[in-house]
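Dear Dr. V.,

Thank you for agreeing to look over these. As mentioned in my earlier message, I'm a first-year student in the group and I'm still getting used to reading structure tokens, so any feedback on how I've presented them would be very welcome. I ran two proteins. I've put each sequence directly above its structure. The first is here:
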Amino acid sequence: QVQLVESGGGSVQAGGSLRLSCAASGSIFLLTSMAWYRQVPGKQREWVATVARGGSTDYVDSVKGRFTISRDSAKNTVYLQMNSLKPEDTAVYYCYAFAGMASWGKGTLVTVSS
């Protein structure tokens, strides 16, 4: 199993930027894909972006061109660079990893004010 710890959340005004980090530990040799999800209270958790073991990436349409997911395999860390933030990006952001089984972080809150 993999343990995930997110950091980097906070409050920012619309148009601003934040970078989220997610450090993985444990059975990291089994890691394949890593991803970010987000959830607004009362709504379903939404997939945001994925980075595969080989480095390919994919994004939900609403963040394309604004968010960038990247992965530092040497540090077992995945990042989410978020630019041009909008109030509708406000959510708790969760890190996800698959290493034989799915693992989730505890989440980090991102608040974007207008």
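The second protein is here, in the same arrangement:
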Amino acid sequence: HVQLVESGGGLVQPGGSLRLSCSASGIDTTLYCVGWFRQAPGKEREAVAAAYTGGLESYYYADSVRGRFTMSQDTVGYTLYLQMNSLNPEDTAMYYCAAVSTSERSCLRGLRPSQYTYWGQGTQVTVS
């Protein structure tokens, strides 16, 4: 049974930083695509970043966050991180982590939300 639990959201001023965490249990740490998504009120859920658990530190980033956000993985006990720097009000959203069993190639091309199987409950990030 896969379970994902996000934490680390909050209120931050423009230009500030936050680090989100996603604690994952029940996933095979060599065969899963894990990703971060966000959804602002009235907007569709969009991909932020993704990584393959069995990959060699290769990551997918959305154009809107590349260079500002950094995703990382701690394979001991498996925790996923999203370091967010230079935040601006457009980054305000509920942030979710997600996981799906798929190939590394598919994962790093960027998957749609509907292609992920498991989701956390989300953590709110507000930049104001």
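From my reading of the second output: The longest strand covers residues 93-101. The CA atoms of residues 33 and 52 lie 4 Å apart. Does that match how you would interpret it?

Kind regards,
E.
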